[in-house]
Design brief:
By secondary structure, the protein is an alpha/beta fold. The protein is built from 10 helices and 17 strands.
């Protein structure tokens, strides 16, 4: 059941019911333009990852800023975007199961869709669904470039699977999926660069071997918010799949740039707004943002621009704050912006974005692709 929005356009930020998911629209818009300006000289396209925002509204804004389409991780996310009018969607993951694959194939009547595969048996399933739907489905081969998760080995194994796809009258070989997810959060710049250099080498070799067999790669996709500059500048990748860049989070803020300083390419634009609901001690406050309101899988949230107030513990409905070094304590009922440790699963807890500009509510956007469904 979708919950009613926690605010109305024109409300002051302190009037928003909490917990609420806020977008600082100025920072968000700056992030979209910043990514476009960074990719423009490289020639790499942006296929922004909707697993972060889960919103057709944001997908359209990203495409207005230059993105060629969207990535998703689940069929349900693809459906929500296609139903919302997004015209080009890559399911950058494997899909298994007749029902899910049939749902994906049916979306080809609404949008240009593609999916990834790393197994010949899965390719056969996709082929049967495409034949039943009377479509030709684009299929990319996912290669393991170092993450050790999904993907066939680069080189001959990937080429053989691509040939299997290309030989089907119901499928179309769409290229390579070469995402190194775990490299996104390697803190040191040199270590992060080295991990992506290895991924680029694997991908380049596979692209060359595919060309030797007469197979071109319309899409060579990968890269994320933590590494996209390396992939975009490689001359191998032609699509970048960054997602978190539009919002950012506390975990990405822990990465370092070449000078050893925290990366500051993008601004923090996503917050969970909470209310101080208890002041049991002079140095303790409690907010109404607990485990049900914010993800802690990548660490506890930060209190925005208040380094002497630390979020130290979460229970289901409560977040405990410690006030350090004699800092001014928040008052009962005060609203605080919290920076989530991990933006993607935090977004998944909410039905609405509350867009604010200069601390006034400007818009409300539904989060239509949220939830644990597939």
């Amino acid at each position: 059941m979708q919950q009613p929005p926690p605010a109305s356009p024109g409300d002051r930020e302190e009037e928003i019911d909490t917990p609420a998911l806020l977008i600082d629209l100025g920072a968000f818009e700056a992030n979209l333009e910043r990514m476009a300006s960074l990719l423009r000289p490289t020639g790499a396209r942006l296929r922004a990852h909707a697993k972060t925002h889960k919103s057709a509204v944001i997908a359209h804004l990203q495409m207005k800023a230059g993105a060629v389409g969207q990535c998703v991780q689940k069929v349900a996310e693809a459906e929500a975007l296609a139903w919302g009018g997004v015209p080009d969607i890559l399911l950058s993951n494997e899909v298994v199961g007749a029902t899910k694959i049939a749902r994906l194939a049916s979306l080809a009547r609404l949008a240009r869709v593609a999916v990834c595969a790393d197994d010949a048996e899965q390719v056969a399933m996709l082929e049967a669904a495409a034949e039943a739907a009377r479509i030709r489905l684009r299929v990319l081969v996912e290669i393991d470039v170092g993450a050790g998760r999904c993907g066939v080995s680069p080189g001959p194994e990937a080429v053989a699977l691509a040939q299997r796809i290309a030989a089907s009258p119901h499928l179309r070989f769409g290229g390579l999926q070469a995402y190194h997810g775990s490299a996104q959060h390697i803190r040191g710049y040199a270590e992060r660069a080295a991990a992506i250099a290895e991924a680029v080498a694997h991908t380049r070799r596979t692209v060359e071997q595919l060309k030797q067999q007469g197979l071109d790669c319309p899409i060579v996709g990968g890269g994320g918010t933590g590494s996209f500059t390396f992939e975009a500048g490689s001359g191998v990748f032609n699509e970048i799949q960054a997602g978190s860049y539009c919002f950012m989070d506390a975990d990405y803020a822990r990465n370092f740039d070449e000078a050893g300083a925290p990366v500051s390419t993008f601004q923090q634009s996503l917050f969970v707004l909470g209310t101080v609901m208890s002041r049991p001690k002079p140095d303790v406050a409690v907010v109404d943002v607990g485990l049900k309101a914010i993800s802690v899988d990548s660490g506890l949230p930060l209190v925005w621009r208040q380094p002497h107030i630390r979020y130290v513990g979460a229970s289901d409905e409560h977040g405990k704050l410690i006030i350090e070094d004699g800092a001014t304590a928040p008052f009962l009922g005060e609203k605080l912006r919290l920076v989530p440790g991990h933006c993607d699963p935090t977004v998944d807890r909410y039905d609405w974005y509350v867009g604010v500009r200069d601390h006034r509510v400007e818009c409300l956007w539904p989060i239509t692709a949220r939830g644990g469904f597939n």
